[in-house]
Structure to design on (850 residues):
């Protein structure tokens, strides 16, 4: 493979071109001795992405060939940067020794083959992965109004698939956040029949049962891609589990971004709910917690089981502390196992299996054998036979087996003897050097070693001619001469033989240990999962103890009652600044299932909305919650339209995005859903926005879903007396010594105003602008500007309850009086248009004699 020579090319460039044709769109890196080198357009791209020098090597078709290279010993750091840039990288290795190529002929070149293609979703090397984050490969197969969805984490062996509504694919991908996504349009291999056969071959009979055709097709594309990139190396995957969308709380992509569950606004963990909650001490536990927060459960039984574990650790602080101390000693079993299974394991991976199993066994003995933690204790039971086999490993084996020392001294007598001979041989080198100095009288004589000559005698050039005839000249340098010597050659052979024998014995041990580990792979995977679950439960208990969090009471009803609830992220930030967080109650139940929340900007409305959503997420993830008490009916779908943004890349304005998200809520919300809406309608003209906000409020109240609706449209408060299920709440603020003070308290009733000008003053708007704004506001409130709009509002039946009082009778010359009252410089474009319509109406009324 990869050795065909392109017509007109040198043998080397022909091989590179053939390999590139095989690599396709992937960047090709070719092993050339101690470097991986890229050529042609790949070289330009690699040099740009890595910011390294672009040079040239030889010519092709009369032009220099662009080339750049990265050292083999530092490859992982460079590869990580290329893959994080979203590029696939094909690795072509030397498949034979250069000496073997020379024996085939003078023009023969080293045989090279592509041994692996690295893509963002198929990584398993430790340095290429985020230890605390998953690296998922996803595949989507559309099938009408449904879609098959499959995903895998090849670094741990996780494999899952299921079907979702076609319109929910984007939301599910937002939940999974895959590093790489495959589609049937971009990749062949999506064949449900072939996938079914492949699953049976890989996992045995029954592996494909329970999956519909779209899910099987997605699995087929996924497995085909994994096999293609692995290039024949075995990738260990667990039998696919069936994903049921109904089993988790549905959260659309916009709501997920709004709530910052596992990633903050900057795209990292910073500022997210995960960052505020995470107290895990293992990488696997951190990944499991992130999964739990990204996909809260929607069924009571598994949630209660998680809460039981957290409560057990919370109630026993000593057990919690000892458990966390043991967990800190547990390496990442799942990822070490995956590397060993794929043939990419190194001695430290075997040591991680050994140390992880040891930590699991100690933890099994520590945990109670009954109660909520009994299942974990059983799942962590020791694997005595395998642990005993792994005991032959050195405490800290070298990264590369070729360095020697992976097997502990005393583990194998034959190995110890070979090592002794090699060690004694090196000591004998020093003794022979002393003997040769004495015999020749050349005190500057040295015995040295390099990869070409091996062991040799080196003397300054002036002493070379006086050495005895037993010294065989090998090489002359600028200032030194090098020689062979019979006693040195015999000793070197003995050293080489012993060292090679020791490495061969170690290699046999490592192969047997790898085979033993793979024979216990399923049992190791089970212990890896139990360690992660134990870490998550203990960590959530630690967080609950830190913050005084309480266990939520989950019900089969539709209530949402939180006493003294807090926002975990904002509270942590305020505590860091030495400021307290003001807790608030929220009760969406009975006759108050929709709260209209009014109040000033910066008053805490958005924080209040988000904190209640996060309480629901935490509770259904299996965590205690930041509140004094919480009684919650299971939330099936969570909608959060809090915060405004546009989508310029898609050509959508803020208002268009807002309406699209609102439409999704109105289509999908049920009486078991939790809906958060903040300032719906603000992105368009005032009256259009008010009309939309009014209609949306009525629709949600009629549907009966639990809703928090924050608004500056005070006209909406009239709905509280007209529509069942609507209650009024406000974010309190007060003026103190001429300044606005935000109390961050949510109280009953409507806010007396929006305090917009006061907020503007706090933000630093200049006083002349504020003075002018107060003047305009006074005129607006007196009806001097925009009276036409106010009269139009009174004509809309929808707003009669909130219509302004009727205008006083106009004077006889109404047109002149109206024009006299106009301040042209104060008119907005909308107010000017309203004025034109009003003036036209006045003229027509006078003309008709009315």
């Amino acid at each position: 493979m990869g050795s065909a020579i392109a017509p007109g090319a040198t043998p080397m460039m022909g091989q590179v071109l053939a390999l590139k044709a095989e690599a396709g769109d992937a960047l090709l890196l070719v092993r050339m001795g101690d470097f991986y080198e890229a050529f042609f357009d790949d070289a330009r791209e690699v040099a740009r992405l890595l910011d390294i020098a672009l040079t040239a090597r030889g010519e092709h078709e009369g032009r220099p060939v662009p080339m750049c290279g990265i050292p083999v010993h530092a490859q992982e750091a460079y590869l990580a940067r290329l893959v994080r840039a979203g590029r696939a990288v094909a690795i072509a290795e030397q498949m034979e020794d250069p000496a073997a190529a020379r024996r085939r002929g003078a023009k023969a070149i080293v045989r090279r083959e592509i041994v692996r293609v690295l893509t963002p979703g198929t990584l398993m090397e430790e340095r290429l992965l985020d230890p605390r984050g998953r690296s998922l490969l996803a595949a989507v197969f559309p099938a009408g109004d449904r879609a098959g969805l499959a995903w895998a984490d090849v670094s741990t062996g996780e494999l899952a698939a299921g079907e979702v509504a076609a319109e929910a694919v984007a939301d599910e991908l937002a939940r999974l956040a895959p590093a790489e996504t495959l589609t049937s349009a971009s990749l062949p291999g999506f064949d449900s029949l072939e996938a079914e056969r492949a699953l049976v071959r890989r996992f045995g009979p029954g592996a494909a049962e329970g999956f519909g055709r779209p899910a099987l097709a997605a699995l087929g594309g996924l497995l085909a891609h994994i096999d293609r990139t692995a290039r024949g190396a075995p990738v260990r995957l667990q039998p696919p589990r069936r994903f049921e969308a109904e089993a988790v709380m549905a959260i659309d992509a916009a709501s997920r971004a709004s709530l910052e569950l596992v990633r903050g606004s900057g795209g990292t963990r910073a500022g997210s709910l995960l960052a505020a909650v995470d107290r895990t001490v293992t990488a696997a536990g951190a990944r499991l917690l992130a999964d739990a927060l990204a996909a809260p459960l929607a069924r009571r039984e598994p949630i209660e089981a998680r809460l039981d574990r957290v409560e057990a650790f919370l109630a026993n602080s000593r057990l919690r502390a000892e458990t966390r101390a043991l967990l800190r000693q547990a390496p990442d079993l799942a990822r070490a196992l995956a590397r060993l299974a794929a043939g990419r394991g190194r001695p430290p991976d075997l040591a991680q299996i050994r140390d992880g199993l040891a930590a699991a066994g100690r933890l099994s003995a520590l945990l109670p054998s009954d109660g909520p933690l009994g299942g974990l204790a059983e799942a962590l039971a020791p694997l005595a036979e395998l642990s005993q086999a792994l005991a032959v490993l050195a405490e800290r084996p070298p990264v590369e087996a070729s360095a020697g020392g992976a097997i502990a001294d005393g583990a194998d007598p034959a190995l110890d003897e070979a090592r002794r001979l090699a060690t004694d041989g090196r000591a004998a080198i020093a003794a022979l050097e002393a003997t040769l100095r004495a015999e020749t009288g050349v005190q500057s004589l040295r015995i040295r070693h390099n990869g070409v000559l091996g062991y040799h005698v080196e003397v300054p050039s002036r002493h070379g001619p006086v050495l005895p005839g037993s010294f065989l000249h090998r090489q002359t340098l600028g200032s030194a001469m090098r020689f062979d010597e019979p006693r040195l050659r015999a000793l070197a052979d003995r050293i080489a033989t012993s060292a090679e024998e020791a490495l061969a014995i170690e290699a046999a041990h490592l192969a047997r240990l790898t085979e033993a580990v793979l024979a216990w792979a399923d049992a190791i995977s089970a212990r890896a999962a139990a360690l992660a679950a134990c870490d998550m439960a203990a960590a959530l208990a630690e967080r609950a103890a830190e913050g005084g969090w309480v266990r939520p009471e989950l019900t089969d009803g539709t209530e949402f009652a939180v006493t003294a609830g807090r926002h975990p992220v904002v509270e942590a930030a305020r505590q860091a600044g030495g400021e307290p967080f003001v807790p608030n109650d929220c009760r969406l139940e009975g006759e108050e299932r929709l709260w209209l929340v009014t109040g000033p900007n910066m008053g805490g409305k958005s924080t209040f909305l988000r904190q209640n959503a996060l309480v629901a997420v935490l509770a259904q993830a299996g965590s205690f919650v930041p509140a004094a008490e919480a009684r919650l009916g299971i939330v099936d779908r969570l909608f959060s339209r809090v915060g405004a943004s546009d989508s310029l890349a898609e050509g959508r304005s803020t208002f268009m995005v807002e309406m699209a998200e609102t439409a999704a809520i109105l289509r999908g919300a049920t009486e078991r859903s939790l809906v958060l809406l903040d300032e719906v309608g603000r992105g368009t003209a005032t009256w259009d926005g008010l009309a939309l906000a009014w209609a949306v409020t009525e629709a949600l109240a009629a549907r009966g879903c639990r809703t928090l609706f924050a608004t500056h449209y005070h006209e909406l408060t009239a709905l509280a007396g007209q529509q069942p299920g609507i209650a009024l709440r406000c974010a309190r603020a007060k003026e103190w010594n001429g300044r606005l003070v935000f109390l961050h308290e949510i109280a009953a009733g409507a806010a007396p105003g929006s305090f917009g000008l006061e907020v503007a003053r706090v933000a630093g708007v200049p006083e002349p602008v504020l003075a002018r704004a107060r003047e305009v506001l006074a005129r607006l409130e007196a009806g001097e500007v925009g009276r036409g709009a106010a009269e139009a509002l009174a004509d809309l039946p929808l707003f009669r309850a909130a219509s302004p009082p009727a205008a006083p009778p106009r004077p006889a010359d109404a047109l002149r009086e109206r024009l006299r009252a106009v301040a042209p410089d104060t008119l907005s474009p909308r107010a000017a248009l309203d004025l034109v319509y009003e003036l036209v109406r006045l003229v027509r009324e006078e003309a008709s004699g009315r």
